[in-house]
Specification:
The complex is a heterodimer. Chain A is built from nine helices and eleven strands. Chain A is of the alpha/beta class. In chain B, strand 11 and strand 12 form a beta hairpin. Chains A and B meet through helix 3, helix 4 and helix 8 of A and helix 4, helix 5 and helix 8 of B. Chain B: Component of the general transcription and DNA repair factor IIH (TFIIH) core complex which is involved in general and transcription-coupled nucleotide excision repair (NER) of damaged DNA.
Chain lengths: 322, 450
């Protein structure tokens, strides 16, 4: 029953996004002009964890100005490009910008373009609310952000776009993350990653924190996105524009950073710790760091009682057959 | 026919063919930089963005490393385009290495756009001074105006003569699309019909391109006109802009554009203003965007019936080019695709692929979800009819039978063969078919035999 979980999720990753793109490209080539579908929907998940940013070498405001320029550049590249920004807080997540609903004109305040002022306003509201939620919680919680929440929100948004009709932009997710992984979110994040893989949405990650993030490495690896940890933070916009601004169509042609080593370690379901080796339930593939008598997820009984469980299952099948 | 085929992707060719001086002048306008950037291929766009904050020369060798070796041709195409548009400039250093850098005016303008966002050249008028139409009304107005324009094109002989379309515009679209032999009513040419089957954006670009290319005749600088048009495309749909902000040339242009439904002109007590419609704001959207297409309305069934949910008179006319109208309800046009109707279309120079792509592009949302959106048997049949036309060659000919004797028949066959005019013979029943041009000779020969 014990196996090496490190090999658990490697086999299933494949890069469908590229295939899909070339398919779109060919199916239109019967027309006189070549349709290059580079219309993209970029969902940016931005880490707003105050515990991380207060200890970080780069000021949050500086980082934000790079991000704003990057968002502008995405919108500049194609009239139909769409940008959604979701803030990943400590206790909650929220939409703080959506280019399809906010009109960039009209709200002009004079000193600042509409995109930045709208976004900043919403961001401030969000951070305040997030802080208030935190006070209710007990102090001294782990300084990780709610990545699973914002990933799910992004995927929900993308599903809505998929269902809006046959002509929709090519979606991708970009995680701008800095805070360390929260092992307690392992299951939720893995589920989000697999649903992203199923709907062929690549997750790019730009990790600015100190150590590599195993979650984001896996997310990008499995979904065929790009994981990159910029070695230098001064000109982070250049990294954005060189790597993360690449639309899915051009990714077929360009040389983008490849993942060198991906940390495939999983967290156990019982204590939410990252483990190298552990026990796996043979029925539902739940992971545990120590031997249990019964699987906490599916209720299968381990150990000596195994034979009984099997025969019970067989008997059930037989009764069903007859 | 090729004339229309080229135009679909051609605006940039037109811009890139401008002399260097004019191009550099164009790039002083930030909107043009934006529009041109958007019209590039994805890879070229990417390169521009990547180079945007690099102030030094970048070696060509280094750039080649950006792209995967298999796709080197794509890289070449993108770079050539950028060089052609003078967005990148090439220099060769002492070691004979090629180096590139981005055009500094272009670079500065785009940087400004990224940091400060768009700033329109003219402020919209405050909404309390003018009465603005609702967005739906405006769109309906634009489409009606555009349809009226197209309707004139398709049935120029029966259209109401009280058209408001200015002479400059008429001259523009008559060129190439309409042919007029003296004293006859003007007739649509092949490319005219193909033009009608294109989607609105492509049609618009065709007209605008013609409008620009003959601007010199009207004494308007084409670079000025291009920059004004692109500038207009960045205005906000449905806002009012004062006509005072325009110069004389622009004011004349605006009037022409109003005839096409690109802008709506309105007059107040003291001032007059223009309201951009969706047509003009779509102008800068790159032509290759498939997603900008409007909602379709045509349902084709496997029994060759075609239902078009539309009230448009124009659409009815277009459908009649390749289908026979059965009946028309207030919001529904029912027609059938028949061999005759399709042959009619072929006669006019429309190809099967054009008809099929028209049907696919305008498929009703219900059927657009299906793959294929147009039933396969219908598309196959249309293609077959086309290949039939290519397979069967019609030759005028004469039929001979009732020969008095086999000798006479054989001799007549030989004679026809000599003139290279024997199409078919049946020696058993003594029948033969002779080409029309050989008929005279064979007849003469037979007469002499008597």
């Amino acid at each position: 029953m014990a196996s090496a979980p490190s090999k658990l999720y490697t086999g299933s990753s494949f890069f469908l996004s590229d295939k899909n793109n070339t398919h779109v490209f060919h199916s239109y080539s019967m027309f006189d002009f070549v349709i290059a579908d580079d219309v993209s929907l970029l969902v940016v998940l931005m880490d707003t964890n105050p515990f991380f940013w207060s200890t970080f070498s780069l000021q949050f405001s500086d980082f934000l100005s790079h991000v704003l320029t990057f968002l502008n550049s995405i919108l500049l590249l194609n009239q139909l490009n769409q940008v959604v920004v979701i803030a990943t807080g400590r206790n909650s997540c929220g939409y703080i910008y959506d280019s399809s609903t906010t009109s960039d004109h009209g709200l002009e305040t004079g000193t600042m373009p509409a995109l930045s002022s709208n976004l900043l306003l919403k961001l401030e509201e969000f951070v305040d609310k997030d802080e208030q939620l935190g006070k209710v919680d007990s102090e001294g919680a782990i300084a990780s952000s709610l990545l699973s929440g914002s990933l799910s929100m992004a995927l929900c948004y993308i599903q809505r776009v998929f269902r809006s009709g046959p002509l929709h932009p090519q979606p991708r997710i970009l995680c701008l993350h800095g805070s360390p992984d929260g092992p307690e979110q392992y299951v939720a994040i893995m589920n989000a990653i697999f649903s992203a893989q199923r709907s062929m949405v690549p997750i790019d990650s730009c990790y600015v924190g100190s150590n590599n993030s195993a979650f984001l490495q896996q997310a990008s690896y499995i979904t065929g996105g790009v994981y990159y940890k910029p070695p230098q933070l001064d000109g982070i916009f250049q990294y954005f524009s060189t790597i993360f601004a690449t639309d899915l169509h051009s990714r077929t042609f360009l040389r983008l950073p490849k993942s060198v080593g991906v940390d495939f370690r999983a967290s156990c379901f019982c204590h939410k710790q990252t483990i190298d080796m552990g026990y796996i339930c043979s029925v539902c593939l739940s992971i545990f760091c120590e031997h249990h008598k019964k699987c906490s997820t599916c209720g299968s009984v381990f150990g000596q009682a195994q034979a009984d469980v099997l025969s019970a299952a067989n008997r059930k099948r037989k009764t069903l057959d007859t | 026919m090729p004339q229309v085929k080229i135009i679909a992707k051609n605006f940039m060719d037109m811009v890139s063919s401008l002399p260097a001086m004019k191009l550099d002048k164009l790039y002083e306008n930030a909107f043009i930089c934006e529009a041109i950037l958007r019209s590039l291929q994805p890879l070229a766009k990417k390169y521009v963005l990547q180079m945007l904050y690099i102030d030094t020369l970048v070696a060509a060798k280094l750039m080649e490393e950006w792209v995967l070796p298999d796709w080197f041709s794509k890289h070449r195409v993108a770079l050539d385009r950028l060089l052609q548009l003078r967005i990148f400039t090439e220099t060769v250093d002492r070691k004979k290495e090629k180096m590139y850098r981005i055009n500094s005016t272009f670079q500065k303008n785009l940087q400004k756009l990224l940091v400060h966002g768009e700033v329109l050249p003219r402020e919209p008028m405050p909404p309390n001074t003018v009465r603005l139409p609702s967005l739906e009304d405006l769109e309906a107005y634009a489409l009606a105006q555009w349809e009226f324009f197209l309707l004139q094109l398709i049935s120029s002989n029966q259209a109401e003569r009280s058209s408001s379309i200015s002479s400059a515009m008429l001259k523009v679209f008559k060129r190439g699309l309409l042919s007029q032999r003296d004293k006859e009513a003007p007739k649509l040419t092949e490319s005219g019909f193909q033009f009608l089957l294109m989607d609105t954006n492509a049609q618009l670009w065709y007209i605008i391109r013609e409008y620009i290319s003959n601007s010199e005749e009207r004494g308007v600088d084409s670079a000025d006109l291009i920059s004004f048009l692109l500038e207009l495309s960045f205005h906000v749909t449905g806002e009012a802009y004062n006509l005072n902000t325009l110069n004389d040339v622009q004011r004349i242009t605006i009037k022409d554009l109003a005839d096409l439904g690109l802008v709506k002109l309105q007059q107040g007590r003291k001032e007059s203003w223009f309201i951009p419609t969706k047509l003009v704001t779509n102008l800068s959207a790159s032509l290759t965007d498939s997603s900008s297409r409007k909602q379709g309305f045509v349902v084709v069934e496997t029994n060759f019936r075609m239902y078009a949910y539309s009230t448009s008179k124009l659409l009815c006319e277009i459908l009649q080019q390749f289908a026979s109208l059965e009946y028309q309800l207030p919001n529904l046009i029912v027609s059938a695709i028949t061999k005759d109707s399709i042959y009619n279309a072929f006669e006019k120079g429309i190809t099967a692929d054009q008809i099929i792509s028209f049907l696919q592009q305008n498929a009703h949302p219900r059927v657009a979800l299906r793959i294929p959106s147009v039933p396969e048997n219908v598309t196959d049949q249309i293609r077959l009819w086309e290949s039939d036309r290519n397979r069967v060659e019609i030759t005028p000919a004469h039929y001979y039978d009732e020969f008095p004797s086999r000798e006479v028949f054989e001799a007549a066959c030989d004679c026809a063969r000599e003139w290279n005019g024997l199409l078919w013979e049946d020696s058993k029943k003594m029948r033969m078919v002779v080409k029309a041009e050989a008929h005279m000779h064979v007849r003469e020969y037979l007469r002499r035999q008597k």
